[in-house]
Fold each of these.
Amino acid sequence: MQTSFGTGQANRESTDLAFTDPLTGLGNHRRFFDKVDRLISDRADDPAPFTVGILDLDGFKPINDLFGHKAGDDILIQVAMRLRASMDGHSTVCRIGADEFAFLYPMVFSEDAAAEKSRMLIEILSAPYDVGDRTARLSASVGCSLFYSGDETTEILIHKAETALYHAKRSGRGRVVVYTREMEEAAKRVTRIEQALRRAVSAGEVEPHFQPIVDLNTRRTIGFETLARWTDRDLGAVPPTVFIPIAEERGIIGPLSQLVLRKATEAARSWPKDLFLSFNLSPSQLVDQNTGLHILAILDRTGFDPRRLEIEITETGLMNDPASAEKIVEDLRRVGIRVSLDDFGTGQSSLGRLREFHFDKLKIDRAFVSSILDDRPSEHIIRAILAMCEGLGMDVVAEGIEEEAQADRLVQFGCAGGQGYLFGKPVDADATLGYLRDSFRGALRAKAI
Ligand code: C2E
Ligand code: MG
Ligand code: MG
């Protein structure tokens, strides 16, 4: 027979279990909410603010995949130990998701102090982790919010910290962001754009525009890059630098891309057959094995010759999951689609990437071209890139050429391809046909002379 004492202990143990994360022994999300609830009621008569934060490990999933789940668990236990050791007597840290931790600092009263404390946590987590006889490194991002007034609930405070975390993640790895009201406005705007974009994609309202790519020596147009354009009836014209990242993040990029590629290949069918069509793929599309199938199905349906299609990808697109990207690229290349490396020289460039992957073409980023006339380092970098492309047997296109003098200098360095406002801005399918007719007439006139 159980004594009442025994039952009480069992109850307490099961309550403890309900509030504890079994892997790390830290409190779980229930414990965290409970602690914040209590602190809010304690502060009912005390105007002192306090801080909550959410910390998310950057790139934990690839580590888990690379080292295995057991090693992933070991790392999480080490992370938990470090976080616990860094808390003072007043503070609490809990594990509230797979690789997400939350902390509560009752004695941190200002945004600066919250950011400072968070940076310290990131620092502590950046030291190497033992995984068997190997070591792994991790970084972390943190979003914080401060409790200022009695009207705020635990849910609101945590939601604000999550919004701040979202901004931290968006701006790169290892960042700390403290919540501000403008962030909420920005988050609402993103949601508004997302909803309008979903509607536009299903109504077929995103249009391809085309920008000429020319042979710099003859100035003859050799192909066009497809650039997506979208005008919403309420939001107006939304630039691709805004809607493409939102489409990626919210899972709309696949259907959007298919719509634009279908319209673009339909338009390009009536162009002269020696012109190529170039098309941008987003990083998240190189993680999705259906991308290749979708592209091939569209080419099949519109009857566009795959040998006239080029896809442009960036180094970021290759970094997330190189094996997946390589498989997609190989599938496309097998049917004759060419592959360009876009925006070269920005982002996390790695020359090693050029050894692992074979690209048919490299596009030199506008940042170098725009400073070629007055910046010696840019000039040297462009010359080095051109020499490298020649050695590796890659074609080159310099992007963002706006002035004759820039084009001249590039020709002088031996750059064969160019693109930029000097030769033509991106325009819609009808205007592109007009442009082609004009260049064709020009060519005829030149012959007659
Ligand atoms: P990108 O692929 O590097 O495209 C070149 C960008 O430079 C385009 O901006 C183009 O309008 C702009 N540009 C071209 N020449 C000049 C110039 O002489 N001066 C200046 N200042 N700009 C020039 P846009 O159209 O705003 O597109 C921005 C980015 O959005 C593209 O960069 C590409 O990464 C992405 N994007 C556009 N359409 C698509 C799409 O259909 N799918 C995907 N995944 N991404 C797209
Ligand atoms: Mg491009
Ligand atoms: Mg580019």
Amino acid sequence: MKKIVILISGRGSNMQSLLEAKLPCEIVAVISNKADAGGLTVAQEHGIATAVVSHRDYADRAAFDAALAQVIDGYRADLVVLAGFMRILTDGFVERYRGRLINIHPSLLPAYAGTHTHERALQDGVKIHGCTVHFVTPTLDAGPILIQAAVPVLRDDTPASLSARVLHEEHRIYPQAVRWLCREQVWLDEQGRVASNRLEQPGSALVSPGLS
Ligand code: GRF
């Protein structure tokens, strides 16, 4: 069974969705760069080992990433799952885990890479927004896409209400992506593209606002 390490920085709701998804893998540890991340308590309540590697203890990104990699490799992780991990990783770290490092991002990439995705979507007046699970590559939020979910943007949405609608979908697609990777139904191929066995195709389009 594949071993998974989850990296967090905060509340860890995506991490929790993974812990509760009964995945065909062993979640061996949750690591945070912040000692006060709420997700650490949730992980401990689930009986998962936790560790803190604080970026403040290291002189630069490379030193922090080296320390982080050492802890991850101590758990013999096959897959490293970023779940609200708010540090930019060095190219060296990303290369070390090529095809084994994934992230979830709260937008339909390549739209709205970076932060404040919900505010920017509302500002632009887009009618459909969503979330993306992707392999991590050196360019921020630009790696090959594994799965996306789209949600409608509603007339009276605020960043908070839109974020909640997107987060609900995050909690559905992240476990799915991890399940595929654990079962080797999807993978990163030699050309850096997502390859897969035959996966379910969606049945219908999302039209927003709805047709009347
Ligand atoms: C999520 O919106 C995720 O997409 C982004 O950071 C947020 C983390 O939330 N990368 P949580 O800690 O999983 O609740």
